[in-house]
């Protein structure tokens, strides 16, 4: 792997680790999310710094180039995160719909009460 790509990968991992910590300090992330994301970014930094650690896996999967392995791994991780994000989005949508329905019924009942003197 080219040293330039390694440096870019390490800087990217460090930047994302810092941003993760900033989000935690602003209370956008809880402690669990902080540890999960920091583990991901630290793993990313280690793999960027020492790409030879994945050679055994690459041989088993018959992948010739390290960059190809990282691209394939990135797509897999992205797919998992996208799937989880979609699930959370649907869950939030259902909760919002239930809340709006509850508020609409409550306001409707209040209007009916005010009309009957």
Structure, explained:
The chain has helices spanning 3-25, 31-49, 55-61, 66-115. It is mainly alpha-helical and 117 residues long. The longest helix is centred in the last third of the chain and has 50 residues, at 66-115. It is elongated.
Q: What topology does this entry show?
A:
Blueprint lengths: L2 H23 L5 H19 L5 H7 L4 H50 L2
Helix pairs in contact: 1-2
Summarize the structure.
With 117 residues, this protein is mostly helical. 85% of the residues lie in helices and 0% in strands.
Helix content: over 70%
- The shape is elongated
Main sheet overview: none
Tally of alpha and pi helices:
4
Total count of domains:
1
Portion in beta strands: under 5%
Rg, Å, rounded: 23 Å
Characteristics:
117 residues; 4 helices; mainly alpha
């Amino acid at each position: 792997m080219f040293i330039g790509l390694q440096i870019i990968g390490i800087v990217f991992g460090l930047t994302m680790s810092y941003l993760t910590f900033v989000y935690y300090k602003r209370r956008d992330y809880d402690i669990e999310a902080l540890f999960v994301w920091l583990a991901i970014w630290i793993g990313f930094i280690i793999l960027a710094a020492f790409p030879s650690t994945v050679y055994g896996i690459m041989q088993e999967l018959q992948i010739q180039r390290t960059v190809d392995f990282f691209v394939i791994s990135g797509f897999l991780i992205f797919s998992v995160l996208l799937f989880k994000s979609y699930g959370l989005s649907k869950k939030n949508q259902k909760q919002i719909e239930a809340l709006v329905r509850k508020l609409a019924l409550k306001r409707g009942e209040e209007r009916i009460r005010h009309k009957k003197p």
